[in-house]
Write a structure and sequence with these properties.
Chain lengths: 53, 321
């Protein structure tokens, strides 16, 4: 049993996995950023439309 | 178990894998038509920044990203449906599906998933009107243009051009949450620009559309009629583009850009109209190719001028005061 140079296909597969990982991490960061902006921008001191009205 | 970097039977596995057309990350990215995406991003950005309502920079960034993603999803769905056409045409032969790198089912899956994701995320990040408009744009590009018009009428590119013209409207909606006349002027600019742009391409791509049996104007009405159509649409475009200079999105900078570029564009269209096939064959469609390249600069410069006018307004300089 020995280690060999990765086949070209394995390199491509690794690139795809890393690429997908980066995309997913960026998506998480995006959602986090959006949440922060939405929470800080919204004025929670005013109540939404009163249901009773 | 991951098979990255290690194998106990390298020769046999390598031989079997060598024939597998497995896609790289770049192949999947190519499905999203990144070059078309740049146009979508830029025009949507102009639509957003020209709006009178400021948008939080991060929300604006997210909105542009999701609009681009929606455009990319349309590209993937277009490649899925048009794989047979793409395999015949020289211009599109190298796309991931005809090359066997990505299967049509994968393209369909990515297209549908990204369409849903982009619409929902744009709606959540901005408002449902912008999300709805993005959904309508994807529907228009895929169902109306790709599946219906493209293979059935020589007016395919005229009506279908609307799909590529919607991004500034979506950008405006993302910022304001309501419709106005200004983004529709930007829509009209791209809408009227699309036919001469693609007909010039059809002229110098010669038999590509014939071979693919796509009823482009060059195929159904002949190349002479296409040259006439380019001139007529360029005249109409010039009237619209210069007229826009006197509206709310225009101003002195825009008007100067529009006058120069429409003069050049009209001159190019007249040159195309005056030529015949023998002349074009002789210099390998030099004039038609130049017109096509100019059309790219034309649209980018008009939108850049609208952006300049919008950015100058807070300083009391943009527009007509």
């Amino acid at each position: 049993m020995s280690f060999h140079e990765p086949h070209e296909l394995h390199k491509r597969r690794l690139g795809r996995n890393v690429g997908l990982g980066v995309v997913l991490a960026a998506f998480v960061a995006l959602i986090f950023g959006l949440t922060i902006v939405k929470v800080t921008e919204t004025d929670f001191s005013k109540a939404p439309v009163q249901v009773s009205e | 178990m991951s098979d990255i970097g290690y194998t106990s039977q390298p020769t046999a596995q390598a031989a079997s894998h060598a024939v597998e057309p497995e896609a790289s990350f770049g192949d999947f990215f190519a499905l999203l038509k990144p070059r078309v995406m740049t146009l979508v991003v830029f025009t949507a950005l102009v639509g957003m920044l020209a709006a009178p309502v400021p948008i939080h920079p991060f929300v604006g960034f997210c909105a542009i990203l999701f609009i681009a993603l929606g455009g990319g999803a349309s590209g993937a769905l277009n490649m899925w449906w048009d794989a047979d056409i793409d395999a015949v045409m020289r211009r599109t032969k190298g796309r991931p599906i005809p090359k066997g790198k990505v299967t049509p089912d994968e393209a369909l899956g990515i297209g549908v998933a990204l369409s849903g994701l982009s619409v929902i995320m744009l709606s959540l990040a901005t408002n449902w009107l912008a999300g709805g408009m993005l959904a309508f744009t994807i529907f228009f590009y895929i169902i109306v243009y790709t599946m219906w018009l493209k293979r059935s009428t020589p007016q395919n590119i005229v009506i279908g051009g609307a799909a590529g013209a919607f991004p500034p409207v979506i950008g405006w909606l993302a910022a304001t949450g309501s419709f106005a006349i200004e983004p529709w002027l930007m829509f009209l600019l791209t809408f009227m620009w699309t036919p001469p742009h693609f007909w010039a391409l059809a002229l110098f791509m010669r038999n590509d559309y014939d071979d693919a049996k796509v009823p482009m104007l060059t195929v159904t009405h002949g190349r002479r009629a296409t040259r006439v159509h380019i001139l007529v649409y360029t005249v109409l475009l010039a009237v619209l583009a210069i007229g826009t200079g006197f509206t709310a999105v225009g101003g002195p900078v825009y008007l100067a850009v529009a006058l120069v570029l429409n003069g050049l564009f009209l001159a190019g269209a007249i040159r195309i109209w005056r030529r015949d096939e023998t002349m074009s064959e002789a210099d390998d469609f030099r004039v038609e190719r130049r017109f096509f390249r100019l059309s790219l600069i034309y649209l980018a410069a008009h939108f850049a001028a609208i952006l300049v006018e919008a950015l100058l307004k807070p300083y009391g300089l943009g527009g007509w005061g």
